[in-house]
Automatic annotation (TrEMBL):
Entry annotated with the keyword Transferase: no
Main location: membrane
GO terms for MF: transmembrane transporter activity
Stored InterPro entries: MFS_dom (IPR020846), MFS_trans_sf (IPR036259)
Sequence ranges assigned to domain Major facilitator superfamily (MFS) profile in this UniProt record: 53-153
Protein name per its UniProtKB record: Major facilitator superfamily (MFS) profile domain-containing protein
TM segment ranges: 49-66, 91-110, 122-146
Localisation: Membrane
GO CC term, one of those recorded: membrane
Organism in which the protein naturally occurs: Brassicogethes aeneus
Length: 153
């Protein structure tokens, strides 16, 4: 098990410094070795896990971008097909953001209590489901509701 010790910095030219540095203490059988954060990270190295984490994190970061920017491609066609007014187009554009705002606190609480991994997986699956539903929309109201729940995920 590792312990964390707090050490005060020495006084500087302007007087005593009020912050501290965390040092990770790794106990061993013979003596206790101290390492700072950079030493601990360099000791673990860079490998398959880091590459896998990047491959998972990049699509995760792009998901909200796709959710919010796809309407710019859909609106010109939907304007003719669904007879949308300028106000209707604004509402459709805002529904995804409204869902994101409405669900922020809920998802934060659920992730803290139930675990992030399960909820991220479920959220991505549900988001994909709502995107597929929005692609089959034939009415303004259905598209509006589906875009809200797509943002909610």
């Amino acid at each position: 098990m590792s312990q964390i010790e707090t050490m005060s910095k020495p006084e500087g030219p302007d007087g005593p410094r009020m912050y501290s540095e965390e040092i990770i203490v790794a106990p061993s059988k013979t003596n206790i070795e101290m390492a700072n954060f950079e030493t601990a990270v360099s000791a673990t190295g860079f490998g398959k896990f880091n590459i896998f984490l990047l491959l998972v994190a990049i699509p995760s970061a792009m998901s909200p971008v796709f959710e919010s920017s796809t309407m710019s491609y859909v609106l010109p066609v939907a304007q003719c097909d669904l007879n949308l007014t300028l106000q209707d187009k604004g509402i459709l554009n805002a529904m995804g953001f409204g869902g994101m705002i409405a669900s922020g606190l809920i998802w934060g609480y659920l992730c803290d209590t139930l675990g992030r991994k399960k909820l991220i997986m479920a959220g991505f699956l549900l988001d994909g489901f709502f995107i597929l539903l929005s692609s089959t929309s034939q009415s303004f109201m259905f598209l509006m509701v589906v875009k809200f729940f797509g943002g909610f995920m």
